[in-house]
Amino acid sequence: MKTEKNKFSLWLLAWPIFIELLLQLMLGAVDTLMVSRVSDDAVAVVGLANQLFQAVTTLFMTVASGAGILIAQKLGAKQNEAARTVAIMAVTISTLIGLLLSTILYFQARPLAQLFHLEDRLLPLAETYISIVGGGMVLTALSAALSTVIRNTGNTKGPMITAIGMNVIHIVFNYGFIYGELGFPQLGLTGVAISTLVSRLLAVMLLLFMFLTAFERRMEWRDLLIFNRKLFGEVLKIGWPLGVNMSSWVFTQLTIYTFLAMMGAKELAARTYMNTLESICFMLGYSIALAVQIQIAHLYGAGKLQEAYRSGYRGTWLGLALVGFNCAILVLIGRVFLGLFTSDPEIIQLGLSCIALTVILQPGRMVNMGMGNSLNAIGDTRFNMIISLVSMWAVAAGLSYVLGIHMGWGLAGIYVASICDEYLRGLLVVIRWRRQKYLRRAERQRQIEVVPAGGSEAGIHA
């Protein structure tokens, strides 16, 4: 049986997250590849609709993300019952928010599609896709909350196993609906949307089973009525700045995608294909960043403050090494990869013209994510929120318009703006982490509480 220390080691946390992200990448890549067989217009619609879905998911991820960090902190402090209560509230509230969003997205699909200034021929496709996938947003909410809770108990294998099953089912259903094989009707993009719903439903069922036994005391139906105002306040204290941060990122991306839609369907399709390709670069680094957040939150809750401080740097440097390796692969396979998705030479050329910029972008993104997640893990989420609001809108979105549209740089202008944004925020979070404001405060609090000498580490050192 794994000890608590081993359970929260960086490697044991990270590798299942990596496999899960790899499978998600494969799902996204295969999904895009299959949709591209319908048409490049369908790809553009899916890319844009997914930006909308990311925007609305921030509403329930505010609760889920804050709860995940607090669960790891409480488990580190040996407050298992408090962690269990937080988990129950996170799942219940996320489900209620998901039901509300499902209703809105299903009945308001066309007005939402019109917000993106799509070309007229794309509107019917977008309306159908948004209504079906958006109508099942409650499943996305449940899946996100359950995965976050389970992952932050140190069980990163559970979501990984779920991802395997979800991938297999989604690919099989996609194949059947797009090509009319395996006894399925040929439904094109509508079939892709239905496939998405079915795979998410089965994933939720498996995650619910894992959730029931995630803590020492088994979950019961009556537990769904549990509400602890004090703990929920702690969740919101951590979670609402995270929600604003995520919302800021998603809505700036929506704004940028609107700029891309104004440029034309080819630019929009090229960006969608490049998003899939960029995921290869960042997948390993992102898995480390997520694992570091869980590990630091647990160490912080346990009072191992100096070890938490070192973990932030260790994880970020490891992530940078992995991102660098993946960027080299990206350069080698870029043309072949894009050729798998489209035969349009103009779209391929648009994507290839931005590969060098993508390679420059990824290290800045890794530093921003690694050190930013370290700050989040100890509850310093407001700082990330403030710099995100300023940098994402003034730099990422503002420069995208100036460079991409006003100066006519097109897709390249979007990438240059993203590079400036990621490196600026990365620099600011590194400076914040080095100052150790929250860690020093936690150390002073521990000294006031007169923790027994054998139960804590030495103080924080500069």
TrEMBL record:
Compartment list: Cell membrane
GO cellular component, one term: plasma membrane
InterPro entries documented for this protein: MATE_fam (IPR002528), MdtK-like (IPR048279), YsiQ (IPR047135)
Membrane topology per record: Multi-pass membrane protein
Pfam families: MatE
Keywords of the record: Cell membrane, Membrane, Transmembrane, Transmembrane helix, Transport
Residue intervals passing through the bilayer: 52-73, 85-109, 129-149, 161-180, 192-215, 235-260, 280-303, 315-341, 347-364, 385-403, 409-431
One function term, GO molecular function aspect: xenobiotic transmembrane transporter activity
Keyword Transmembrane helix: yes
PANTHER family: MULTIDRUG AND TOXIN EFFLUX PROTEIN MATE FAMILY (PTHR42925), VIRULENCE FACTOR MVIN (PTHR42925:SF1)
The name this protein goes by in its record: MATE family efflux transporter
